[in-house]
Amino acid sequence: MGRPLLRAGRPEQDPGDIVSEQTEVPPFCVVPGSTVHEVLDGRQTEITDLVEAAYRLHGEGHTINPPSYFLRFPDRPTARIIALPASVGGGRPVDGIKWISSFPSNLDHGIPRASAVLILNDPATGYPYACLESSIISAVRTAASAAVAARALGENRPAPGRVGYLGTGLIARHVHSYLAALGRAPREYAVHDLSTEYAHGFADHLRTTGDGSPVHVLDSAEELVRSSDVVVCATTASTPHLLDPSWFAHHPLVLHVSLRDLGTDVILDSFNVVDDVEHVLKADTSVHLAEQRTGGRDFLDGTLYDVLTGALKAPADRTVVFSPFGLGVLDLTVGEHVHARAQEGGLLRPVDGFFHDLDRHSAPRSKGGRR
Amino acid sequence: MGRPLLRAGRPEQDPGDIVSEQTEVPPFCVVPGSTVHEVLDGRQTEITDLVEAAYRLHGEGHTINPPSYFLRFPDRPTARIIALPASVGGGRPVDGIKWISSFPSNLDHGIPRASAVLILNDPATGYPYACLESSIISAVRTAASAAVAARALGENRPAPGRVGYLGTGLIARHVHSYLAALGRAPREYAVHDLSTEYAHGFADHLRTTGDGSPVHVLDSAEELVRSSDVVVCATTASTPHLLDPSWFAHHPLVLHVSLRDLGTDVILDSFNVVDDVEHVLKADTSVHLAEQRTGGRDFLDGTLYDVLTGALKAPADRTVVFSPFGLGVLDLTVGEHVHARAQEGGLLRPVDGFFHDLDRHSAPRSKGGRR
């Protein structure tokens, strides 16, 4: 894996021993958000390909991605911290966990709602070897998975005339940067948000960072949906509010990143692609509500992996909805990449003494004895 | 909580604002094992009291301690990484997660089996503020909980004539250091391990670090159990092997740290105290097996909290078994203490730029808008 490894300084070990790198303890590094940003900035195409490769590994069964695990607080009902443990196989294997907080009340104080760390563990020894700031990684892998889907599901569609953003926060900004990197600039952008301030802020962002295409701030979600060929749903809505299938009569491609914007009738009227069936059919997502209403999963047409492998073709003459749960294996994949690039760039310094006195804590070598 | 806090440098914010500390982002620090060791070394009495206080908070319902969460690997069947998310209330509240690996194959390469990190989160904002090496914290909180139990359950017993250690690895060493700090030195020690090398290594450790009491390495578990007034079970046995209640006819106090050494007949013949009923009756612990066999929990006499509050008196004329699951809230409590002491001692340095560009990622301030 290209990481230098610490050798426990065992005096009885001949320094000439050929010790496999799998038997040594990796150094422990901290990767701050500033380094994560530096390493990922401007690398949208590379990260999109990386996330597509992770989805392929996932589809081939070379990952472990148990359900997310929620820590909730009776005294702070809107807050939660979620654990996403996971394991990625393939050529650059890594285990680990994302630990991501969402405290909506932070927004009232000018602090981002979400904060996160990602721990990477060495698959050979289990030792943690990195702690990365992970709010940027989370946003980036979410945006990259939308880009993977847009690329694969939009293949047989013309370049979009209008891309519409419903919900204009941090995730929308990242999705835009990833969709823009696909090189299929739309003729124009539409933007809508319940907060006019957010909507105009995002519109300014599109104008100053974009490709010169005009940006329209629209007054209603209906107008945005009806007029956009690609609809990016990036709100924080907890219950569906896009309820009328007739708004989708022009058969857009919907990147349903937020998971809870679309009503059941819209879902049942569309061609539905998800990233992981078991994960996304949980926690009252729009597709989960559709499952509850219909008592089955027949309305799901397949997974992104099916599309990537050519086993599933998305139609151009139906509304296509991509509902991505967002998998811990994507965070791990991007995190491992960030760590490797930071290391190549000389941006990492191991934390001295992180694993304290490995000899003192190691046991005498003996086979088969029970301690 | 006595931590300095970073203020997001919002230009529109009057620097004279009275901003509650609850609305700001704490700096992020890494606490290496060397610092953890420095801060905890020689503080057994203080940590024992701290862990007792945590058990009281837990008993009073001021904690959140969901079930542990296991990440397992089909290609590495003996390995696992366990997540213990938790929340502690009271006067020094903290949320967080322990992420602890156990890779038994490490021992064949002279590397400790377990490695761990602990993330502490600020209960006001959800922001992570520390990443601590946690194999030492884990061992220490385990040892401290054994000491809390020995102190409370041994109150009406004479000072032990002989303390016996069954299993002589890292946990036994820590338990010894915590029991020794209780100030009731036994007349002598007994030691047994399936590995003679381990047993003699631990005996030497007791002789060089101890109180001068003689140490006997015994050939059999039976001899150790029959001759000890306090039996510390600290093996890695996965199925019970102390099966005969007659070995316990002298009614010792058994600190069943390992959870799986005692056969069902021994459990059912004893006075049983646990730390948390729901947690310990899982994963085929000895008490779980007893529950499965009897179809009920009547054999459990109460919790450590009941003993600490005086609601439960442990008899001196029966075998008393303490089976501690080990709770994430203990790790958090000890970890918070380590962080606070390290900060007081000037041993912490925030990681520059860990939370990158808080302004860029924060949203415009607006009430009630959905992004």
UniProtKB/TrEMBL annotation, chains A, B:
Residues 1-24 are annotated as: Disordered. One of its GO terms (molecular function) is oxidoreductase activity, acting on the CH-NH2 group of donors, NAD or NADP as acceptor. GO terms for biological process: siderophore biosynthetic process. It holds the Pfam family OCD_Mu_crystall. It comes from the Bacteria. GO terms for cellular component: cytoplasm. SUPFAM superfamilies: NAD(P)-binding Rossmann-fold domains. InterPro entries: NAD(P)-bd_dom_sf, ODC_Mu_crystall, ODC_N, SbnB. This is Ornithine cyclodeaminase.
